[in-house]
Each structure stands twice: as C-alpha cells, then as structure tokens.
C-alpha cells in the first residue's frame, strides 16, 4: 500500500464516524489490575514467578483438570479443588544436552532447558507431552492417575522418543500441533537454526514408524511459514474424506520483476489417509493444497487494506460437525497504520476455494496465473476412497500424472473471502496488538450471540459481543488488565462449564470469570445498556445470569437493548436531584458531571432567564463542554439558571444531575482569606496554565473543581445566615452533594 493511501486510510479510520462510533469501540468497562483483584472475579492458579514460561495448556472439562507445560515441569491443577496442591512432574533436559546448548551460544536460563510446549490428549489415560529439550526436542507419555486416588500423574520414561518434527527447538518459535487417531500432525521448524519449517505427520503410539511431510527446500510448498493452528474437520459422511486443516502465514512469492515480499495468511489441507506416493512423493504429502485467507477493509479509491499477519485461529463448533466456523485473528502494520481484525470464514467458502481452479506460475517472469489446462483424474487433493473408485484404495494408487501435478501445484487460484466480505471486528491505532482469540457462543430460542475474548500483547483481555444478526455492530464490553505489568497473553482456554477463562501470560496463570456484572453500575439502565449477555438486572442489582432465576431477570434480550421498556419499573436514578451552586460574577465555575461508562456521551441543557425552555449548551468562547463537566469562565448575570447534564446513548437520554446556578455579585465576595493577585489570574484563565492540551486542561479542571468545593462550602455557611429568596429556600434543603 502506498504511504499516502495508508495515511488517508488512517485518517478515515479515525475521523469520519464521529464520536459515536468511537465510543462504541471504547469498552463499556475498563478494569485495571487493581480493580480486578478487588472484584473477586479472578484468581492466580500459578502465581507470577511461580512457574515461569507456562504456555502449553490442556484443559479437561469433564474431569476438571488443567495441565500446564512449563520450564522443566508439567503441572496438573484440579480446578474443582482450589485448596489441593497441584501435581508436578519434573522433566529437565539431559545434562549433556544443556551443555551442548550452551556451547552453541544459547542462553542457559531462557533457552537451554526443557520447555514443555506440546500437550495433546492421546487416550483417556495418556497425554503426549513434548518439550524443547534444550534444543533437542523430546516427547513422552504422561500417565494420569486414576480418578480420586490421590496424586498419580507420572512421566513414562520408557516412552521417551525424539520430538523432531513435532515440537520446535526454540522455546519461543510459534508452532501448531494436533494429535488425532494416534497420529501427530504438526507444523514446526525441524532444525536447530529454526529455519526449515514443515508440516509433518508422525505416528505416536508404539514403535516409531512412518512419517510424512511437506517436500524439503521447495519454496512453493511452504516459504518461511509460521504455523498457527491445526484442526481435523470431516468433509463428508464418508470417513475416507476426513481432512486435517492447518492455518499458517508465509512469505508469498509473487513472480515478476517487481517482486516484493508479502506475508499471506493461508489454510492448507491434507487427507488423513494420505500415505504419500509410490514412485514419486515417497513419504511426502500427496494431497497437500493451500489457499489464501483474505481479511481486508475497503480503503480510499477502491483499494483494499489487507490484514495478512495471521495471529490466531479459533474453530467454533456448530451442530453440524462438517461445518464449524473459522474465526481468524489478523494484524497489519506499516509505518503509519497498525491494527487488528477478526474475520469469520465458513467451511463452504474454504471448500469452494479448494474445488476451484489451481494457480500456476507461467511465463519468463514467473507470474501467478490461473491454471487453465486439463486437470488430471482423480482431481488432485481428492482423498482416495473405494466408495468412489475401487481402484483407488490408497494415495499410492494415484497415477503418476496426479503425483507430478501435485508436486508442482499446491496453491489454489481463488482466495477465501470472509463472511460478509469484511471483518466482524476492527481495532485500528490502539496501543496494543491482539494476539489470542477465543469465541463463546451463547444460544437461545434459535438465535445466537458470540462473545469474543481477545488477548493483547500488553496483558489485557478484551471482551466483545457479536450479536448474531447480519450487520449488527460489535459491542465492546470489557477491557481487563490481567497482569500487573504489561506482558503478552500467551494462551487462553475457555471453560463454558465452569463459566471461566484460563489465561496464561509471562506473569503466570490466571483464572478469570466471564463477567463482573456489578461493575457496570447500580441502576437497571447501567446494567441493561451494557448489553453483556452474561449479566442481567434482577430487580435490585446487576448480577450474573447464572445466579438469577430467569423469570425475574430483566434485559436478557441483549439483542434489543430496549432499555426504557425493560427498565421502566425501576425508574430510580432517572429523576435527577437539583443541586444549588453559587458562582461569583466574573469568576469561573465548574459543574461536574461524568458518565459512568466511557461509552456514554454527555450533553448539557440549560434554561437561562425566566420562562424559557431547556436548550443545549455548546462549547463557545466562555463555555467549554468537557468530559468531566461544564466549565463556564467569566460568569455573568445571564448565566444564572438551571443546568441539566444528560447521559446519551443510542436513542436514549436520561438526566444524571441538575444544577441551579446562582450568580453572586463580585463585590459581595469578601471571603475571610484572599489570595494574592498572581494566584487569582492564574486560576481564572486556563490558558495561563499552559497549552490547551487535554493534560493541562484536565489539571486545570481538577484544580478548579477542588477550589469550587471549598468555596461552595464557605458560601453555603455564609448564605445560611442570610434571608433566603423564595426559590433558593427550596433548593437549600437538598443535601449538599457536590
Ligand atoms: C469472593 O467469592 C467467593 C466465592 O464466590 C466468596 O466466598 C467470597 O466471600 C467473595 N469475597 C468477597 C470479598 O466478595
Ligand atoms: C492409552 O495408551 C497407552 C499407550 O499406548 C496404553 O498403554 C493404555 O493402555 C491406553 N489406555 C487406554 C485407556 O486405552
Ligand atoms: C475568584 O476566585 C479566586 C480564587 O479563589 C478568588 O481569590 C477571588 O476572590 C474570586 N473572585 C471573586 C470576585 O470572588
């Protein structure tokens, strides 16, 4: 993308929507780490510094245990018994290998140890574990103890085998693995340098037998790939058609003399029953095909801004096992633009690309073109199945023509577009990058609502609601800081049964409730407007839906957010109390009013002079509408009147506070102690305090607010001894709340 176009886009993204859309992108609730601890909605399972480098998580929902792979250790946590000591296995790398690793110039603390990076369930009693083994990967079975019979997890040392082609050598390099039917599919680097990455399948049980992989040193198969996720998805009802899909990003090789390096997001697939070719492609995939995943937004003048850096993939299972939804998390960055996006793909779209035309390199400049010549039979990428052709029982029966075609054609011509052809979520120019993605689908009465949990690179978990209706806007719910100091979220697991999230970061492992309803506010309005599907108004408080009887609950219908009708029985908080304030002529005054949520906008209405209606107050020369309230400089007699601060959200507005401002003559302000001349001028004019940046204005308002409070107190005492006017006597009986 040209820098100018990018700059334009940056501007377009930021500005044209106006404040309304910007507020939608701000979370309803921003929870700091301190507030999180106080809210009692999280718990450290492995405290910061307890078990460094824990990144592999394996959750067993039914048996409620969580296995954690860490540095030189495997830990088993019993989630149902928080008091129980975690079980631990120590599994260091062999001493000789640690020395070898150090001699090769690696760091003894952060690299030359056995970092457990892979934990995959093998059967009901065994888990396959692989670690980096100080740059010599190793795998072994972990046997689980019988249920209820005390500690019993142990490492089966006789099952120790090489982890090459299963687990990376480095503790940090991304990889993807999936163990299914006793076969481990893994996309990983397979050497010390971390340079030759490939997609492997190895047999796990028993003696080490066959393996199969992508062709070596063939850039058109894979070029500098980074693997993100692997999933087994059945294609038809015929089990011979079962496939494994692997998601990754790689450097795309565009031909042409203007060749440029691009990162492209990809999905590749292989048949589970692929055993390689007989004469060619021996021990190589003979059904490996790949296609590009697109996730982009329209830019100026018909261009597209692509999000190509695939960061994470979440497979959302639906009732139809052949058609899960694929949620992809992508980032994009350039000198002037950075952002993250989530795109959703249907398996139908993925399959359509694989059944479409092949891509082909042609001509003197090796440009990619659509392959238009005859495609051999059986169509490359088809899984062998006797059901279709009795002569094709295995990939070894493929004709040579098919094998040589597959050897040269892996890439499909058509890319895969997301549903709706646009991201469901976009975050541009935010101070963090999204790294991890989880989706929780809530279903009720044939409709669904997806909640996205996104882990950032600076220790936050974002919670975003996606109403199931086409075109509905994403609802930004929470932004939770789960670490004391910013550090990347490494992995997240969802436990729908226990209604919690397990979040691992470099700081440790945290258990996090799916909601903190009470923090949304104390009124029905606050609760319902948040549109958090886990929360509801129970008549007296905002509570978790789980804790409430359904029939007593308000605002379960998060899709409608028809707050007024849902909250009409609970009008408390709707009628704002009128508060008197006294301003001194020619001086400044500050009327404080702040919405509870950053998503709520605030508007000021005023009635000045007798018999006039309320009209909106807009910022001007003397009056400034600020996030924190209304600042009126150089008060005059005409400023006296009623000021109402209203919260505005979607189509609703409701009063938050009402002030009746009275002006006191300048001469009547002989207070007991006066400030010096210099101080006076600096207080009355914010420009004196510095440039009109928000920082200095904030400081000014805080100072002004403080001073106002003190002065109001003094004035109240003074005025209580005076003969009240008829209007102010009503006002004065109100409790003083400024
Ligand atoms: C925190 O939650 C636990 C479990 O629900 C409860 O027993 C405890 O009293 C709560 N503590 C506070 C301070 O709310
Ligand atoms: C699981 O696999 C291991 C290793 O092959 C085997 O010894 C064990 O009997 C299996 N367990 C079950 C319950 O099948
Ligand atoms: C305006 O505010 C300053 C600062 O509190 C105070 O010293 C001054 O007396 C006020 N002016 C009048 C006219 O009350």
Automatic annotation (TrEMBL):
The Gene Ontology biological process annotation of the record reads:
axon guidance; neural crest cell migration; positive regulation of cell migration; semaphorin-plexin signaling pathway
Enumerate the Gene3D superfamilies for this protein: Immunoglobulins (2.60.40.10), ligand-binding face of the semaphorins, domain 2 (3.30.1680.10), YVTN repeat-like/Quinoprotein amine dehydrogenase (2.130.10.10)
Q: Which residues form the Ig-like domain?
A: 591-647
Q: Sorted alphabetically, which Pfam families does this protein's record hold?
A: Sema (PF01403)
**GO MF:** chemorepellent activity; semaphorin receptor binding
Task: State the gene name recorded for this protein.
Answer: LOC100546568
Which keywords does the record carry?
Disulfide bond, Glycoprotein, Immunoglobulin domain, Secreted, Signal
Primary location class: secreted
* InterPro entries from the UniProt entry: Ig-like_dom (IPR007110), Ig-like_dom_sf (IPR036179), Ig-like_fold (IPR013783), Ig_sub (IPR003599), PSI (IPR016201), Semap_dom (IPR001627), Semap_dom_sf (IPR036352), Semaphorin (IPR027231)
Region Disordered: which residues? 717-738
Q: Could you tell me what this protein is called?
A: Semaphorin 3D
Give me the stretches of Basic residues compositional bias.
729-738
> What family does the entry list?
Belongs to the semaphorin family.
The secretion signal range is 1-20
Q: Which CDD domains match?
A: Ig_Sema3
Q: Name one GO cellular component term.
A: plasma membrane
Species source reads: Meleagris gallopavo (Wild turkey)
Indicate where this protein resides in the cell.
Secreted
Give all residue intervals belonging to the Sema domain.
28-514
